[in-house]
Amino acid sequence: MQTRRLGKTGLQVSEIGFGAEWLERHPEEEGVELIHYAADAGINILDCWMPDPKSRDIIGLGIRDDRAHWYIQGHLGSTWKNGQYYRTRDLIYVRPAFEDLLTRLQTDYIDLGMIHYVDSEEEWEQILHSDYLSYVMELKKTGVIHHIGLSSHNPKVAVKAAESGFVEMILFSVNPAFDMLPASEDIDTMFAEEFSAELKGIDPEHAALYSICEQHDVGITVMKPFAGGRLFDAKRSPFGVSLTPVQCIHYALTRPAVCSILCGYDTKEQVDAAVAYETASAEEKDYASVLANAPFHSYRGQCTYCGHCKPCAAELDIAMINKFYDLATMQPEVPVTVQSHYELLEKTASACIDCHACESRCPFGVKIAERMKKTAELFGC
Description:
The protein has helices spanning 28-40, 53-63, 91-104, 121-128, 131-141, 155-162, 204-215, 245-253, 268-275, 282-285, 288-292, 318-329, 336-343, 368-379; strands at residues 3-5, 12-14, 16-19, 45-48, 71-76, 78-81, 84-87, 110-115, 145-152, 169-173, 219-223, 258-264. By secondary structure, the chain is of the alpha/beta class. The strands form three sheets. Strands 3-4-5-8-9-10-11-12 form an eight-stranded parallel β-barrel, surrounded by seven helices. The protein has a two-stranded antiparallel ribbon with strand order 1-2. The chain has a two-stranded antiparallel ribbon with strand order 6-7. A hairpin with a 6-residue loop joins strand 1 and strand 2. The longest helix has 14 residues, at 91-104. The two termini are 37 Å apart.
């Protein structure tokens, strides 16, 4: 299993992770066995947003004998009230719910303490001046949580968190369908039966989030990589074509700053289907050809850093050059860090020989030679 550095946390997390919310469907022994199976496959990061006792108990038993193997995302603000999930910042509920998490997981620390589910910019501003955040900071100071993260579905909120200085990583919903949608505080918009016909390609605010996270070294872990399974069904997919788990995973892992894809599992076969990404061929990972030729909401004309343009006659890393160009043009001025990283490339855009051979291979019809000229002008080399 390949690992990636989770931004400024420095943690080396597996590319495929474990979203544990389905564990409550299973008998305890079966759930524990599934966690062990995932660990044996090389998965080392698990998200526990669920406040229900059963899920937490299963996770505790599953990680107990090998706690050091696992990086746990544990959420602050996800509580259990009258037998139901209750999201709150009220410390009357938050504190005992987090203490319950530690007890049931049979651990005295949480690797990634998550500010749970913030989709409203107003709520984010309230959190900044709250006892809730003071509690999170105190847990970090005392070592009960090792790093501070945040979960959100709204790119505007996630950008604010990435720029805050204290949020070290973000759990965000990433897939080609959700990436088209404008920022919203209403999660139901993601699961609308139909998307507006005007939506095509990655929404600018989503693209900006990925770029800003990369600039600030804020790693992203991914929830909802399959859009709730909708992308597997051509009739339900907004694109009118189906994608495989491997293609969805590859799409998410080719976004800037993304480090791990947290898939939900009911069976060992589903673990195998996700982990199959690690040995998949380029053809099996190829989401680009599917999206470029989709009957609806085609990504045509937009670089997704898929790498189909290779090989370059001038030996340019075209996808990486395009990524730096996009990073730079999202800011009023070229950030110093982006300029320096661009200049470290073995060959920069100015080495383009204008042969256009790459353009015949680009499934999205990107005018690559023209972009190389613009990039050379922007960076001066």
